[in-house]
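Render this sequence as a predicted structure.
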Amino acid sequence: MTVSRPSRREESPISEPDLLPDSEPRSGSVVGGVVRTARPRQWIKNLLVFAAPIAGGVVLDPSHLLPTLWAFVAFCVSASAVYFVNDALDVEADRAHPKKRNRPIAAGIVPVPLAYALAVVLFAGGLAIALLASPKLLIAIACYDVVQLAYCVWLKHVSVIDIAVVSSGFLLRTIAGGVASDIDLSQWFLLVAVFGSLLLVAGKRYAEILANPDAEGAVRGSLKAYSPSYLAFVWQAAAAILVLGYTLWAFSLADGRSIWAALSVAPFVLAVLRYAQHIDRGDAEAPEDIALGDRMLQVLAILWLALLAVGLYLA
């Protein structure tokens, strides 16, 4: 299979400024720069911690909900710490990049020493918050921190491994929700989590390689080792296994009890197809922007959650 077409961002229903939040020069105070570097917009990814309690039918139980909320906060704090380290390490490369040069650290708004100091504070805060929920969550957050730091320093330059590491960030969020609320994670749940994560990350890399086919000026050295056709194979395979895994899980829930969980397969598959449309266009570099900007995807997500909730909680 050969894929060699340019990115077609103009076809996306999401506005260009949303997809490229660092594309315009900005200035401001150190406090504003710190907030921007923390990337609160990307905290939407941390909602994945609620996936396991929802799938387990216990999310409405306060004894399960409270530790899951702690897991969400811990990941928000820890993820922001990673962003400070990443931007501080990449400061010189970012300054040579047409878009990333406007990031607060690269633009000189947030000093590099301050970024490292804030990262230490946030890492410690994330671990402390995790401990409030459970020792198991503490271990999950610690694993996340170690893996992400290794990615910032080295693994982002190793092809294939870099995709696996970024995917592990999404996967650890889903696992953390399960260990925080002390529920068992089924093999089907883990299968969906693994390949859903792989779909998101392969889609990001696919968008990056279409936008920059020669990988000139790429901060990640691994990008030079990929071709559009290879990344297309990865995200298409991930999407297929994701749909199959979710379908088998939903049908197992519906066995002899309720058809509502099985009916949730329809909006789930349509949502995957909709997201695949974004990847194919080359505008899936920022999944959080798609989640916040695609109204059709939001409607499908609401319908999917409604059907799943009826099957898990009311049937």
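Summary. Confidence is low (pLDDT under 50) at residues 6-26. The first helix runs from residue 16 to 19.
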